[in-house]
Design a protein that fits this description.
The complex is a heterodimer of chains A (130) and B (188).
Chain A (H helix, E strand, L loop, with lengths): L1 E5 L5 H9 L5 E4 L14 E4 L1 H8 L3 H14 L5 E6 L10 H20 L2 E6 L2 E4 L2
Parallel strand pairs in A: 1-4, 1-5, 2-3, 3-4
Antiparallel strand pairs in A: 5-6
Helix pairs in contact in A: 3-4
Chain B lengths: L4 E7 L5 H10 L5 E6 L6 H16 L4 E5 L15 E6 L1 H9 L15 H19 L2 E7 L10 H20 L2 E6 L2 E4 L2
Parallel strand pairs in B: 1-5, 1-6, 2-3, 2-4, 4-5
Antiparallel strand pairs in B: 6-7
């Protein structure tokens, strides 16, 4: 599993698209989905997880197991996650937004532990963390 | 003609990015140091912030010339001499000023089709042209994109535009540095 992470609008998707080139991949933009699909075999890219969780969940355990189920069902070697870092701003006033930040933060710790490769993207530049 | 170096420095609040950017130029052999301030003193806190930056520069071992330009960076070009070191502080303020230009007369730039694209194009072009005359140009900005997307449309537009500008600045820069608590991280 390869995780690309960084702040919003830093060019993460663009970077991954360029990296994949002509390679066949299932690209899942989860932001508009009500349910995560069962991942296909081969290269799968999952992006927009934060807004998916925000729209469909409000209980941390359920949110985490939803994502972990997806991750465990995919081919571990060819799964790509695009994760937006949302944990470094001012604490939100809205309770659901605070919930989302906390959930994503803890979920990311679990995902990062499982990832074979981690790349941080900063305005289109990449740094290998692992 | 040799183009001067362009350096992009970005960091969180009070991460020491301005001090680091000043240090880059103060340690250089630039003949004159020019500080282009985009901040407008809108309230006492902002006035104090500006005066703190001013005092820092006054205490510095080199003399700084300060030019206040909330939006019009191309207007700085005629004031720059060969061999200058130019610091632009900062892009986050510049973007806010640019987006809300015209607010008083009822139509902000960001509400007019094409207005922001034109302003951003002019700003990026001015940065490159500054470097054609100056020996070194340092552009300072802020890290503000590591939080959930805002519920306010204008804030979302601001964040999206700032990200785009940062990516373009990184692209045209010779060096790109992220500051964290006074420690520079060299990305490029």
């Amino acid at each position: 599993m390869h995780i690309f992470f960084g702040g919003a609008h830093n060019g993460k998707r663009e970077y991954v698209k360029r990296l994949l080139g002509e390679k066949e991949a299932e690209w899942i933009e989860a932001g508009g989905l009500e349910k995560l699909p069962h991942p296909r075999r081969g290269t799968v890219v999952l992006a927009g997880m934060e807004s998916y969780l925000s729209k469909n969940h409000s209980v941390e355990e359920e949110a985490v197991s939803d994502v972990m189920r997806f991750v465990d069902a995919a081919d571990r070697d060819s799964l790509v996650l695009i994760i937006t870092d949302i944990g470094r701003g001012i604490v939100p006033v809205d309770a659901h937004e605070r919930w989302l930040r906390d959930t994503c933060g803890r979920l990311n710790q679990r995902l990062f532990k499982k990832a074979g490769r981690i790349t941080r993207i900063w305005y289109g530049l990449a740094e290998e963390i692992r | 003609m040799v183009r001067g170096d362009i350096t992009f420095v970005s960091g969180g609040v009070r991460s020491g990015k301005t001090a680091y950017a000043e240090g880059l130029l103060e340690g250089s052999d630039c003949s004159r140091l020019v500080y282009v301030a985009t901040g407008l003193p809108a309230d006492p806190e902002m006035e104090e912030r500006i005066s703190r930056h001013r005092q820092d520069r006054r205490r510095s071992r080199r003399n700084w010339v300060t030019i206040e330009r909330p939006i019009d960076l191309p207007g700085v070009l005629t004031m720059i001499r060969e061999g200058d070191g130019v610091l632009v502080d900062c892009i986050t303020t510049w973007l806010a000023n640019a987006m809300y230009e015209g607010f008083e007369t009822g139509s902000s730039c960001h509400e007019q089709p094409g207005c922001m694209e034109e302003k951003i194009g002019e700003m990026l072009n001015a940065v490159v042209r500054l470097a054609e005359t100056a020996s070194a140009v340092v552009i300072v900005s802020n890290e503000v994109l590591d939080e959930p997307s805002s519920g306010y449309e204008e804030t979302r537009k601001y964040a999206e535009t700032l990200g785009r500008i940062h990516r373009q600045l990184v692209k045209i820069s010779d060096r790109a540095i992220e500051m964290d608590a006074g420690i520079p991280h060299r990305w490029k």
